[in-house]
Amino acid sequence: MMIKKGLILIELFAVMAIVVMTLSGGCKKEDGPYPQRDVFVCIFSSQGGGTDTWIRQLSALMAKDLKVNMVCTNLPGAKGGTGAMQVWSSPHDGYSILGASETSVFFGVNDVAPMVDKWRFFIAGGSQGIFAVRTDSPYTRIEELAAQAKEQQGKIKVGNSGQGKLWHIKAVQLERARGGSLKHIPYNGSGPAITALLSKEVDAVSCSCAEIAEYVKAELVRPLVVTDVKSINFEGFGPVRSAIEIYPDMETELQNLFQWLGFMLPHDVENEKLKTFEEAFKRSVESPEFDRFLQSQMARKIAMCGKQADQLVDRMQRIASWTAKELGIARKDPEELGIPRSSNH
Amino acid sequence: MMDIFRDILNSNIEFCRHFGQLAHPESILIICLAVLIGIFFGVLPGLSATIGIALFTGLTYGMPLDRALLVLFGVYIGAIYGGSVSAILVNIPGTGSAAATCLDGHPLALRGEAGNANILARISSFIGTVFGMLIFLLFTPLMSKLALQFTSPEFFWLAIFGILICGSLASPDLPIKGWIAGLLGILMAMVGQEDIHGWDRLTFGNANLITGIPFVPMTIAFFGIPQIVKSMKGATTKVQAMSGRSRLQVWPLVRRNLIGILRWGSIGVGIGAVPGVGENIAAWVAYDDAKRRDKLGQKFGTGVYEGVMAPETANNAAIGGSVIPLVSLGLPGSPPTAMLLAALVLHGIRPGPMLTVENPGFIPRLAAIILWGAVFLFLCGLVLSKFMVKVLNVSLRILMPIIAVLCVIGVFAYNNNPFHLKLVFVFGVAGYFMDKMGYAPAPLILGLILGNLADAFFRRALLLNDGRMLGLISRPIAFFFFLACVITILNQLGLVRYVKKKYFGGSKT
Amino acid sequence: MQTTDQRSDSRMRDKDVLFALILILSSVSLIVYSLNLSIRAMRTVNATFYDAPGFSMLVISTGLLVLSVALLVVALKQGGTLQWLAPRQIRAALWNRSTLKTLAVFVYLFLYMTGFGQTIPGTHVVIPFWLTTFVFLVLMMLTFKAASIGYIVVMSGLCTLMTYLIFGYFVKIPLP
Question: What SS3 string covers B267-309?
Answer without folding.
Answer: HHHHHHHCCCCCHHHHHHHHHHHHHHHCCCHHHCCCCCHHHHH
